[in-house]
Each structure stands twice: as C-alpha cells, then as structure tokens.
Write a structure and sequence with these properties.
- This protein is of the alpha+beta class and 271 residues long.
- It contains eleven helices and seven strands.
- Helix content is 39%, strand content 15%.
- A hairpin with a 2-residue loop joins strand 1 and strand 2.
- It starts with 19 loop residues before the first strand and ends in a 9-residue tail after the last helix.
- The C terminus is likely disordered.
C-alpha cells in the first residue's frame, strides 16, 4: 500500500495562534509577510507528497466544468458528451497516437475546454506565481493551497483524484513543455465536489480509527495582496516568470495583456 508523509499541526508552532486554525485535517494560515511564505516552504521541504495550487482569491476548488454546471444536470452524461466530441475531433486530426482518457481530458484543459480537471503543480513557488501574477482585483488575500496525496488512500476505491505522469504521455511537444515547466499535475473530480469539503468529510471517517489525527491533509495559505510586487520580484529571481511557465504563443499574448494592465493602459476588467 502507498504511504504518504503528512505534516503535523505542531510543525507550525512558530506561527501565531491568531493566524492559524486547524480542523478536520485542514490547516488555514494567514501570513503577515511574503517572507513567511518562505518559512512555509521550508517546513514542507522538498516533499512530493503535497501538490500545490495558487488562486488570486479564496474560492471553492472546483473544475471549470463544475463551476459552470450545477448538480441539477446529469453530470456524467454532460461530461460524456464533451469527452466524446473532443475524442472524435482529435482522431479526425490524425496527428496523435492512441490517447488515454486522462490525456484527452488534459488536452481539453490545456486549450480551455470545460473539463473535470483542476490544475496543480509540484512547486509551491510556481503556485504562488499563479496566485499573484494578475493585478489586484480588490481581494484582501491571494491564496496558495497544498493537498496531500494521502487523500487517494482515504477514498477507498473511489479514485476521485488522479495524478498524471507527465513523462509517459502522448501529448505534442508544446503541451509537454508547458506541463514540464509548470511541474504540472491534475486532480480529477468524479462527483464534482469541492476538494476542501471532500478532505473534511473523509478525515472525519478516518478519525474513527484514530488515523491522521492532527495531521495536515490540506492547507489554505493566505498571503496579503499588498505583497504582490515583492512576490513577483522574488519569483523572477528564481526564473519563475510567465514566459518560462507558458513557452508558447498563448503565453506570449498573455504577457502582452499583463503589460497593458501593469502600465495602466487599460483596466484589468477589459481583458
């Protein structure tokens, strides 16, 4: 059986009590500086047992499909329609070898199709870039999430979260390069539930067996918006930039859009 190392709440004793909470396997940290994020990264260390995601605001961790559609629809039926349509289009191109279902979904995700996938990365600093690269939107905090792979063991056969091995796939070189540069991973929601709520539910189940007590399955790390410039300068010194993470035409266009906003030529809402 797979075993994953999990941090303990005591690993964060150096953070003030008023800036942290822990419930049902979920740690919430309110940072007071960008420097504290470096402290968080040091605590997590080089462990690959956690994957990371950055967002410019605190929101449910749902796939693009589940943000768009509600549970009132036949979820699987609609997903099947999207999947079969994409699969047929890719086969019509006759430019790819045999693709697994997960690889087909990943191609759709790459090009902006509604899918059941959610993007993650193996790097906390790359996640922080995705939290901060866009100009402020009025939110008090940006947020970086960490998810332990042990959640797969909690599911008992319901393989709700699926990691991709990005070196054993049939994507074209452009798709591979972006995924490699971003150290990309995916989770796949089979029933469309928010990841945080799934963690809380299944942590309670394991509590009956005294498993995972005071261990961190999921972390929500909030970083004040006012540290955006400091964060991006720090990440640039690590060679974490938009051009590196998106080495393609779409990335080049995104940089131009970001420059327009940063130079205050247009409002962020205009793009």
């Amino acid at each position: 059986m797979e075993s994953y190392k999990k941090l303990h709440i005591d690993d964060f004793n150096n953070f003030r009590k008023e800036n942290k909470t822990y419930n049902d396997g979920v740690l919430e940290l309110q940072l007071t500086s960008w420097g504290e994020f470096h402290d968080v990264v040091r605590i997590f260390g080089s462990s690959k047992d956690y994957i990371w995601r950055g967002q410019n605001k605190i929101a449910k961790l749902e796939s693009s499909f589940d943000r768009k559609f509600t549970q009132r629809i036949d979820r699987q039926k609609e997903l099947n329609k999207i999947f079969n349509n994409l699969k047929q289009r890719l086969e019509d191109l006759q430019k790819t070898g045999p693709l697994t279902d997960n690889e087909i979904w990943a191609i759709g995700q790459h090009y902006g199709l509604l899918t059941p996938l959610l993007d993650w990365t193996e790097s906390p600093y790359i996640a922080s870039y995705f939290a901060f690269y866009e100009r402020g939107n009025g939110q008090e905090n940006r947020v970086v999430y960490a998810l332990n792979r042990a959640l797969k063991l909690l599911m008992k056969g319901a393989d709700r979260f699926v990691d991709f091995d990005l070196f054993n796939n049939n994507f074209d070189h452009r798709q591979n390069q972006r995924l490699r540069n971003q150290k990309g991973k995916f989770t796949k929601a089979l029933e469309g539930e928010d990841i945080k709520s799934v963690v809380e539910k299944f942590w309670k189940e394991t509590r009956k067996k005294n498993k995972y007590l005071n261990e961190i399955i999921f972390a929500e790390i909030r970083i004040p918006d006012k540290f955006q410039d400091e964060c991006l300068r720090s990440l640039e010194s690590m060679n974490i930039t938009h051009g590196v993470l998106f080495p393609d035409y779409a990335g080049a266009v995104d940089i131009c859009k970001i420059d327009l906003v940063n130079n205050k030529i247009i409002s962020p809402r205009a793009i």
